[in-house]
Hints:
The chain is mainly beta. It has strands spanning 26-28, 32-33, 47-50, 56-62, 67-73, 80-83, 96-104, 108-117. Strand 7 and strand 8 (108-117) form a beta hairpin. The chain is globular. The N and C termini lie far apart (55 Å).
Amino acid sequence: VPGDVATFVATAPGFAASEAALDSIRVVPNPFYLFGPFDNAVGNYNLFFHGLPAECTIDIYNLAGEWVDQRVKADGSDSYATWDLLTTNGVPVSSGIYIYVVDAPGFGQKIGKFAVFVESEVLKQY
């Protein structure tokens, strides 16, 4: 009805600033299924790591223990990092379970997992 007013209050995302705060790191969306709500176009996939410290590195491995990619976050203006679901060689990852290791200097490490499901493998393009 005209004249109705709604007020929303949200807290700003914070940085992990201690070893205990590393437990709040989350991967979104998890599982990644065919596409994500943050994808800007078909085939341009994005996975987000939320609740990160101001500076950290994120190493991503497959279940065989093979290193897939690394993200380095050195920007203290936000608490997230984006991964485009490509290997370090620019090849799209396949469906599976992946392990991530967040190494935060001065705080410690956070190890977690996420799942990726893609409709079909697209390696014919590479």
